[in-house]
Amino acid sequence: GFYANLLLTQTPEHILTQTNNKTEILCELKKEHTGVYWYRWSQERQHFEFLVFSNTLGKTTYGTNVGQDKFSVHAARSHSSYSLHISHLHPSDNGTYYCSVSQSSQLLLGSGTQLSVADALPLPPKTTQTPVSKKPVPWIIKSKAASKKGLCSPLVWIPLAAGVLLLLLCLVPTAHRLYRLRRRLWLRTH
């Protein structure tokens, strides 16, 4: 079985980059191990794929159909951290990457790094623009929505102001009626 745990620290959480770039994912280990496995989860293909295993002696084993020119693992001298280098990036490399160690017949997984590769990174709209791949868009929308949650947001103060205005409009005739009623009573008694 697979288990997420605190013995592995994986950074960064998200990578957004362009086609043909290269990137690096770091995995820090807090316990004795024989080596580190790297996996990729593809949301599109609903597939968990073994990429590469690197043992403490520096020997590397690749998964089937995994390009050795694309993936390489670098270990720190102390073997307390490993980094996965991915080059010649392409939108087909999109997915969540996990570092993992084997412990008592279980695979312990890192927290995962979501990689999004786009032909063109989102830019402020100018004239015509090449369409951006589907992955980074929800992330952008989320961050915009998060910034609108402040107290001064029009989403908050417009309905609030309308409510207060409506309340005042309802109170004016009532106050006027009460005033006339009090005056009539006052005139009657005096």
Automatic annotation (TrEMBL):
Transmembrane segments: 156-179
Chief location bin: membrane
Any Pfam family: V-set
UniProt KW Metal-binding keyword: no
Cellular component aspect of the GO annotation: cell surface; membrane
Gene Ontology molecular-function annotations: coreceptor activity; MHC class I protein binding
Domain Ig-like positions: 12-116
Entry-linked Gene3D superfamilies: Immunoglobulins
Name of the protein described by the UniProt record: CD8B protein
Organism: Platysteira castanea
High-level lineage: Eukaryota, Metazoa, Chordata, Craniata, Vertebrata
